[in-house]
Inverse folding.
């Protein structure tokens, strides 16, 4: 089991104050052993606004970690859109809904014209699961190529292509793993994976990658990316861009991560920030692919594209544009990337926009830094293959003052 | 491809009024060919309240079909809970949240004490997918037994155990299908499926059934159910009760369908009405099963159990109790079952609570009835293996006056 490890250790519950301990223990009894809490001392927030979270006693925390509330915690326009729609009607896509069609067209306007169909789900896992179902139906092939520490979600099918969850032994036999870009020759590695599948009599359905390679430690430049995609297409497979992490402007260079690389995917998936916390996700694809799938099977997602979900997504997209948050992500991200290396204890910083990794000396230092920062009321995570990278991935409304507060906090705890 | 067929036929778009046609065509271009609309003439609702839906010109429709808005369309308490929480905070389960723990305990209080862990997802498909992952991890076995026309969801894994979606040819090779109860000897059929798996060298992980057998035409009595479950357990497998359709009181006999049969499942899944339309679903299980799973893999569902989802679910559960909707489902359901057979053209009526099927002479009659009723502003669906059954499955606030309006409408269009 890999992944972030700045989790609360239940064996240390006795060190907590009595109220927190009681809640932690009740939680463990009812939610069971698969759930995790952040931090040495778990924290409960009762209110949020912009980049700030507040505990019951009014203590303010700076959120430099959460990527879901992308336009800011409890954004009033998104909250109002949800409230208005929930009080009026929540229903599904088998009735006509002008707002659904308007949003679909608005979202598709952000994609190359060849990607002209959108299907709505509730989670990024469901979007990736649907993308693979469609890719397999359209190609008639089962093979899938992923990167070394890829994470694409938690359905059975998607867990079976996500080495970051259970290691390579947990993957399906139709999956091939290639080193993350920069750890090898990406184009050659993908060609090798296609060859390895062919040796087993398997054709590739798709190469699927998170276009910022988040769980592989954030890879900004990907030499050979276009060649890798061309090889997969040459073997009959598709290119799926997983935009659940980088999408909706986080990278500060436009709406989607794939565009940075000059690529046109066959299928794109998105989720987390799409409704600023409301459960909505989507898959965008070339219509020919959807047609092949639609001929074989019926698909209906009860809550996918429901009225309140669309209201939340439209308001989020409107705010993203009106508040020019992509530009803000670029400006504040550039500033952080410039300032971080000057801090003693930061070995190097890499990333783009508001998706930044800052490497420290070791996993121990990273874990101590995350917990020390939390005691100073700044929220951060850590990740990377060696868990020695501080993950800076705040709401896109993170401004220069927030950045300075984070930089000062980092300098203090690393000193 | 089976399932309800009272769908709009895109080839008939030219018969629609220009505004509707334009919206239908825009929708088809952006959502693609996998989406369906209800009715000969698709309808757009802009507002709902209780059992009523309204179009933009104020026309009122009686909803005798939708099972998701279980405590009534746009229930003010649920809408207020969503609005309050969305304006304050939406966050995930890795921070402490007293409301999450309170709801988890409240929900688990509705189950036998052996079922003491709950995990939250966003959709019933995700809940069933997680249930199978846990069942397979806990038993170390891959085999799954389902009923003839079962529907459990749309992820890759769950579509592969759902014959109603793509027929038997679409199922995985570790799936065995048994006739629905009443079409054979259920206990003997399940023993036969275990034997068939054994012949292929496959142990059973689980028997999974919708406890009202909705897609198998609604089966109220299940002779041999306990024996079937005992056989599966004898072979090392688990019993999973899919309560996505019958759960949360629809059957009028208590909260869950499995309880009607005196059974204790190992895992229970639920969804649709859980948040009255908000995307929340869950899986409840024996903690030993979750422990086995949790030792092997990490599980995190970004939106599952998030603050607004829990607020919606708690409000829905509170209303279900405070308005005594389970009792209402029993009373109004009994009344419908008593009155329906007196209508000329209804061959027979069966069901329990507010889950009722009324058989008519043929699929043609069923489709005509559904579309004629819609023109009289009453919403109903049709289903059944021969598509000759009118599906009566209204919000649980459906009252005696609603029932009389439905009965009068049925009598008029069937005359």
């Amino acid at each position: 089991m890999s992944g972030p490890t700045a989790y609360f250790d239940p064996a240390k519950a006795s060190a907590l104050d009595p109220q927190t301990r009681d809640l932690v223990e009740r939680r463990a009894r009812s939610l069971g052993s698969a759930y995790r809490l952040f931090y040495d001392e778990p924290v409960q927030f009762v209110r949020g606004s912009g980049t700030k979270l507040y505990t019951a006693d009014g203590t303010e925390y700076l959120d430099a970690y959460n990527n879901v509330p992308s336009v800011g915690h409890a954004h009033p326009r998104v909250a109002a859109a949800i409230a208005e729609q929930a009080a009026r009607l929540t229903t599904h896509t088998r009735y006509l809904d002008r707002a659904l069609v308007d949003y679909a067209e608005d979202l598709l306007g952000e994609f190359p014209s060849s990607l002209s169909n959108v299907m709505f789900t509730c989670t990024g896992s469901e979007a990736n699961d649907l993308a693979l179902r469609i890719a397999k139906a359209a190609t008639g092939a089962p093979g899938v190529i992923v990167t070394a520490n890829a994470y694409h979600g938690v359905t059975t099918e998607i867990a079976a292509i996500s080495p970051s969850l259970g290691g390579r032994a947990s993957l399906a036999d139709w999956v091939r793993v290639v080193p993350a870009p920069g750890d090898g020759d990406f184009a050659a590695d993908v060609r090798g994976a296609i060859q390895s599948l062919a040796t087993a009599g398997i054709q590739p359905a798709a190469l699927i990658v998170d276009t910022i390679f988040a769980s592989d430690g954030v890879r900004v430049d990907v030499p050979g990316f276009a060649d890798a995609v061309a090889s997969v297409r040459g073997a009959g497979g598709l290119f799926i861009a997983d935009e659940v992490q980088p999408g909706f402007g986080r990278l500060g260079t436009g709406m989607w991560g794939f565009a940075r690389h000059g690529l046109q995917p066959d299928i794109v998936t998105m989720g987390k920030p799409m409704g600023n916390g409301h459960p909505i996700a989507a898959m965008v694809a070339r219509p020919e692919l959807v047609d092949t799938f639609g001929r074989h099977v019926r698909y209906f997602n009860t809550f996918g594209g429901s009225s309140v979900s669309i209201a939340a997504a439209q308001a989020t997209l409107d705010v993203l544009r009106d508040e020019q948050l992509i530009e803000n992500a670029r400006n504040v991200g550039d500033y952080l990337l410039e300032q971080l290396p000057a801090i003693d204890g930061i070995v190097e910083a890499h990333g783009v926009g508001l998706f930044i990794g800052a490497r420290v000396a070791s996993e121990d230092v990273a874990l101590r830094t995350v917990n020390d920062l939390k005691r100073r009321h700044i929220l951060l995570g850590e990740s990377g293959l060696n868990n020695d990278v501080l993950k800076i991935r705040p709401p896109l409304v993170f401004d220069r003052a927030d950045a300075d507060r984070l930089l000062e906090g980092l300098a203090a705890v690393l000193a």
Summary: Residues 92 and 302 of chain A are 6 Å apart (CA to CA).
